[in-house]
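Exercise 3.2. Students should predict the tertiary structure of the chain below and write it as structure tokens, then compare their answer with the key that follows.

Predict this chain's 3D structure.
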Amino acid sequence: MKFDTQCVQGAYKPGNGDARVLPLYQSTTFAYDTPEQLADIFDLKDPGYMYTRLGNPTVNCFEEKLAMLEGGVAALCTSSGQAASLLCVTNVCNAGDNVVAMSKIYGGTFNLLNVTLRRLGIETRFVDPEASEREIEALIDDRTKLIFGETLANPAMTVLDFDKLAAIAHKHGILFAVDNTLATPYLVKPLQRGADLVLHSTTKYIDGHASCVGGAFVCGDKFDFTCNPRYPMFNEPDESYHGMRYQRDCGAAAFVVKARAQLLRDMGTTMSPFNAYLTNIGCETLHLRMQRHCDNAMRVAQMLQSHPAVEWVRYAGLESDENHANAVKYFRAGCFGGMVTFGVRGGRAAAAEFMKKLELIKIVTHIADARSCILHPASTTHRQLSDEQLVACGIRDNLVRLSVGIEDVQDILDDLQRALD
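Answer key:
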């Protein structure tokens, strides 16, 4: 199936007389005739279900669709995008290990890596994504377990250089993880660009309607943990799960199976069946919505660039943007995403006054749904960062983050024009 068809019909295949739409299995548990059947499910010999915290038919079908869309072998859904990031790190890191992360990432992820995980003994070494290979490699040692970045940095809008980071990661035998939330597999499939893991806040474009919080990650089939001294947990028997050796017993799906068997089991960061059901419905129009988001955002970026009240604009679709070359190199032709950031002349106070004048576009702590929305990151999503950290993340005090929706573009332009005037 082509991508558009995968969005609509991927994963779920109704049998004769079955429901045409993926059913909602709103049940915590599942019944069996014999204890042996249930034992085989616990041992992963049977692909059935035992308890919704670990697996559910609705959730698992949506996981299969996400894996299909990203070109991966397996996926795991979580209760939020933050939970997906947490599980990806803790699935490979113990106290004393470290992660090399790009400094220009979402503020919540920055805080997770810089504060919460540091308290657990997991260090994160931040680096500018535009740093040289030598500068990035200087941060790597024997305890480095992950290199992490965002396809489109939120809200700096930096486009990740996949070739550079993939080369570094694989030279050292390190997993390369990419948060693909703002690009979605419609713009780029990181697994085809050298990444080993892809993360999503499905709350954003995947759902697309601001109705469900959720997250997910997908693993590819290229990374082999066998004999890799950085990751003994995939080759040694897991005594907490019947002595399973994840690489040997699960092959390319080892990362996802281990995360499900250990972390979803113990941390309980489970996506609810109802959220999976609704998010799957939203995903059915992903291909249509993303094209409209991209088209509208380009028109908005062009208008903002020419307005005297706007100091600067960051949008990779503009030929003058420093990320344009990478976006053309990696993204679907002519598509650059639905996010635009820009600076209002006059600093933070002027940015706040502009936002108050908007009518159609609402101020919300959200991005990437059908409705246009706006936010001032320095005073909201990234307010926990110091001035120095804000600079490292590419956030100026007059930066406004605009998530361009799928409304009629002229209505969006008129609202912005009125407020800026």
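Discussion points: Residues 286-305 form the longest helix (20 residues). The mean pLDDT is 95.
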